[in-house]
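Pipeline run #58 for the internal structure catalog. This entry was flagged by the ingest filter as a single-chain record with no existing model, so it goes straight to prediction. Upstream metadata was stripped on purpose; only the residue string is passed forward. Reviewer on rotation: M.T. Logging verbosity set to normal.
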Amino acid sequence: MIINKRDAGDLQTLAEKIISEFGLPVVIKAATQGSSIGVVIPKTAQEVVPALEEAFKYSENVLAEKCIKGKELTISIMEENGVYWQAGELGAVDQGGGGTIAKFVSHLNIDTVDLGVPVISMHSPFELVSKLDVYNTFRAFEAFYK
């Protein structure tokens, strides 16, 4: 559902309509922002109006949609620059990464990306990497800092 700020009317009535159409939790997001800017996922009815107010801070148009449970990865930087990538998890996700410094930095309220070359037998005398993986990691860093 796309909602224009001019047409939104009473936010409480709008919130009730959104809940009746999509249930809870529901995704409320600013239509013109990237990444997770202006995105709120209210889990209770009382959180929907503040979520709408937050999203309208960033855009005249807001999207409301059914929340689909599962992992969401937003890697538009990679896709826009033709970088081949894949996601992997090492250890518990809520602990911030797979044994790198990222797990310590992420606990300091700093947005953290743990990105690197996949290595077989890391820290052994016989580490093995793919040249294509190294090249795409270089391209990922280049795209990120561009």
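catalog note: Strands lie at 2-4, 26-30, 39-40, 61-66.
catalog note: The chain is about 30% helix and 10% strand.
status: ready for reviewer M.T.
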